[in-house]
Specification:
Structural class of chain A: alpha/beta
Structural class of chain B: alpha+beta
Strand content of chain A: 25-35%
Largest sheet of chain A: 6 strands, mixed
Helix content of chain B: 55-70%
Order of helices and strands of chain B: HHEHHEEHHEHEHEEHEHEHEHHHHEEHH
CATH class of one domain in chain A: Alpha Beta
Radius of gyration of chain B: 33 Å
CATH architecture of one domain in chain A: 3-Layer(aba) Sandwich
Number of strands of chain A: 10
Low-confidence stretches of chain A: none
Strand order of the largest sheet of chain B: 2-3-8-5-7-6
Number of helices of chain A: 7
Oligomer: heterodimer
Number of strands of chain B: 12
Mean pLDDT of chain B: 87
Radius of gyration of chain A: 17 Å
CATH superfamily of one domain in chain A: P-loop containing nucleotide triphosphate hydrolases
Number of helices of chain B: 17
Shape of chain A: globular
Helix content of chain A: 25-40%
């Protein structure tokens, strides 16, 4: 694959300050290209999630920098980073993190409403289309508590895709799902990468799922132990 | 922004009971403020208007604020002179050239002037002796200066002219000695003169001090009683614009040297009480609203604590700090706005309730119920105070919410 790099970590180190400083990741160099579907794997505590948060601009590296489409994002202020997340990034977490008071449809509409690029009617149509894509159309008006774990996760993915982000970051998205639902989620990610050209970075410790991606990055004690 | 409002409203709607308690806290603060303010200001305005109606706006008296300077002090104004044991001269009391002064003052526009001789008397009727102040007046001038004529509940001001020795008593005074219209009583003055006088009218001004201690007779009769022929010792002045009173009093005093008091000065004790009264009212109501503000602080802090995950996810979606802060400020504002509106209704209801309460009380003035004063200003003051309180109460937790680090929450959740 010879596409242009979408997101790059250059010499990234993240240390949690404190009486006993904790090094989360150490001197990471990683390039993810457009349309790639990669998995970050490793034992728990190896820094997988920390790296994902750094790539997702939720956290700021202590040393080094994160580049998005060639631009240094580490120099940006939090306001600008929030704007980038809204426009280009989509997150999926192990826990669905849906807003409990909003329906499935309402949850999917939130990022689009926040972005404010479309009218209310269009946003609703888009959101319904997204839910339909994951077979969740008929659950549109249910509250999260009325959905099963797999269904919630699909709604959460639909919400992550709401603003058609270039980069989707998933942190243990299948951690709470049975194998059937887990497989479905990975199929969705694969389809997004291969059909839509979106870039997907998944953190997982399930090796048989990680093997379905294009590339696995193995972390060990905060360093990259294997890449490929 | 619609979305932020949506989220804020959702939070409040999903914790109905707590929201209701906070809203009611604000509503009560606002409502009580409105009712109390209506009551206090109503009373104060009623009282002031009574004073303004019943008494002259300016009274010039035959006394001096400072004793006259002795010749030696005038001669050596800056000298090291000390006079001890000066005995004041026995002067003939009264305003010198009173009628000339009156003519001069009356020439100013918007001014009505009347001469008065005030003095102490004893009323004797049956077995009762009651002391009172007797004002000798010229009825034709007096009716332009005070509302004595309007305050008469029996008889008429002209009775002073038509009856040989007529006297007008305050209703409280008449009650005390047990006499009524048409009765004759003995009037004894400090000068030792005794006159038989007939009650030709009774007045009730509503100001207790006046009704219980004042009486009126013709100026001539008063002068005979006090044995002070052709003397007046008070000049009573009424203005068409009461706000000029203090200024005119000052200039008259500067010109004639006699102590000249405007109604504000005469009643400054009472007006001073009003300032304290208002202070008490404002602090009581502030206390209620501060408690209400704690309620708001509490609900928003709880919401934020419970919604940390939501805040984290909203941040990861790309909500900036302003938007997060905005959600919780809006929640505080919503509680404030709804509370204020309910408080307005509550306040209106309370004032109506107070207005219907009937009782009889005799304090500074006689009244048969709460005198209430309705004004939009009270609603506005209460509303803005509530708004400031709710915004201040939500600002601190909102700032904390904006500072939530999503990574901490998401990592903790895993």
């Amino acid at each position: 694959m010879n596409r242009k790099p979408l997101i790059e970590a250059r010499d990234v180190t993240r240390v949690l300050p404190g009486p006993v400083p904790v090094t989360l990741v150490w001197d990471i160099n990683l390039t993810v290209r457009q349309g790639e579907f990669i998995a970050i794997v490793g034992a728990s505590g190896s820094g997988k999630s920390s790296l994902l948060y750094l790539l997702g601009l939720l956290d700021v590296p202590t040393l080094g920098a994160i580049f998005f489409e060639g631009a240094n994002t580490t120099e940006l202020n939090r306001e600008a980073q929030a704007k980038m997340r809204l426009a280009h990034l989509g997150f999926v977490f192990q826990f669905h993190f849906l807003l409990p008071e909003f329906t499935a449809l309402g949850n999917v509409m939130i990022p689009m409403r926040k972005k404010g690029a479309l009218g209310e009617a269009e946003i609703e149509r888009e959101a319904r289309a997204l839910l339909a894509e994951f077979g969740m159309e008929e659950y549109a008006h249910r509250l999260p508590e009325e959905l099963s774990g797999g269904e919630r996760q699909r709604v959460a993915i639909a919400r992550a895709l709401a603003n058609r982000p270039a980069l989707i970051l998933a942190d243990e998205p299948t951690g709470n799902l049975d194998s059937k639902n887990a497989q479905q989620v990975f199929d969705i990610f694969k389809r997004m990468a291969e059909k839509n050209g979106q870039t997907v970075v998944v953190v997982t410790h399930e090796t048989h799922l990680a093997r379905q991606t294009h590339r696995q990055v193995q972390l060990l004690d905060g360093r990259i132990a294997a890449n490929g | 922004m619609r979305l932020i409002l949506d989220i804020a409203v959702t939070h409040l709607v999903h914790r109905k009971r707590q929201t209701l308690v906070s809203v009611l806290g604000v509503a009560m603060g606002v409502g009580f403020f409105i009712a109390m303010a209506a009551m206090m200001q109503g009373f104060q305005r009623y009282f002031v208007s009574k004073i303004i109606d019943v008494s002259p706006h300016i009274i010039m008296k035959d006394e001096f604020r400072t004793p006259p300077r002795q010749p030696v002090e005038q001669r050596y104004a800056n000298g090291a002179v000390r006079l001890l044991n000066v005995r004041p001269r026995d002067e003939r009391r009264g305003i010198k050239n009173g009628m000339v002064v009156i003519d001069a003052i009356a020439r100013q526009p918007g001014v009505a002037v009347a001469p008065t001789l005030a003095g102490q008397i004893f009323l004797r009727y049956g077995t009762k002796d009651v002391s009172a102040t007797l004002y000798g007046i010229e009825p034709d001038l007096e009716r332009r200066v005070t509302f004595l004529e309007q305050d008469l509940i029996a008889g008429s001001l002209n009775g002073l002219h038509t009856t040989a020795n007529g006297i007008i008593l305050g209703s409280g005074l008449a009650e005390k000695i047990g006499a009524s219209l048409g009765d004759s009583l003995s009037i004894i003055s400090p000068a030792g003169v005794i006159l038989k006088m007939k009650i030709v009218a009774i007045f009730r001004s509503g100001v207790t001090a006046k009704d219980n201690y004042e009486s009126f007779a013709l100026l001539k009769k008063a002068q005979i009683l006090q044995d002070r022929a052709n003397v007046i010792n008070q000049i009573r002045i009424r203005l068409s614009d009461i706000n000029q009173a203090a200024a005119l009093a000052r200039s008259l005093e500067a010109r004639y040297d006699y102590r000249t008091e405007s109604w504000e000065e005469t009643n400054k004790n009472v007006l001073g009480i009003f300032v304290i009264q208002n202070g008490i009212m404002y602090s009581t109501v502030s206390a209620i609203l501060i408690v209400a503000a704690f309620g708001i602080f509490n609900i928003i802090t709880t919401v934020i604590h419970e919604k940390e995950r939501d805040i984290a996810i909203l941040k990861s979606i790309g909500f900036n700090e302003d938007a997060i802060r905005g959600i919780f400020l809006l929640e505080g504002l919503a509680v404030g706005v709804i509370g204020t509106m309910i408080g307005w209704v509550l306040g209106y209801g309370l004032t109506e309730l107070l207005a219907s309460v009937r009782f009889s009380v005799e304090g500074f003035v006689k009244s048969e119920g709460f005198v209430l004063y309705y004004t939009f200003k009270h609603y506005l003051i209460a509303g803005s105070f509530a708004m400031v309180a709710s915004l201040a109460a939500s600002y601190l937790p909102a700032r904390k919410a904006a500072a939530v680090n999503p990574v901490d929450i998401i990592r903790g959740g895993v």
